[in-house]
Amino acid sequence: MTASEPTSFDLTRFSEVVRRRLYDRIAEAEFDRPDMRCTPDQAHLQVVYFAGRWFALWVDLEEPEALPDLLRVKIMRIGAQPSDPRGLELHEV
User: With 58 labelled, which of 1, 68, 76, 93 sits at a CA distance of 20 to 30 A?
Assistant: First the structure.
């Protein structure tokens, strides 16, 4: 995150700029960790706006491959959190 990027988001409507910023911040928070063994691309990270809400979804590659794909997918609702340095919070769906 650069100093020129705001930490708060207008999550009430779709914007490609907001989608890209959300993607970048979620990729950093969830995949740029020493214990993570895959990239956002490998996990098929997607950020989507649906029914008036933002969601992040990806395949949890740390789950056993024998599980059905539907059980390996993480779906998180994205909410604004101005007090967080990233400006957002994730809620499990």
Answer: 1
- pTM, full prediction: 0.85
Count of domains in the chain? Answer: 1
Q: Is residue 26 part of a domain?
A: yes
User: What are the pLDDT tens digits along the chain (93 aa)?
Assistant: 444 455 677 899 999 999 999 999 999 999 988 888 889 999 999 999 999 999 999 999 889 999 998 899 999 999 988 888 888 999 999
Q: Which residues are paired to 29 by β-bridges? A: none
Residue 21 · residue 7 · CB < 8 Å = no
Q: How many angstroms separate the Cα of 33 from the Cα of each of 36, 51, 67, 76, 91?
A: 5, 31, 24, 18, 19
Question: Which residues are CB-neighbours of 13 under 8 A, at least 6 positions away?
Answer: 49
Q: For residue 72, give the H/E element and its range.
A: helix 69-72
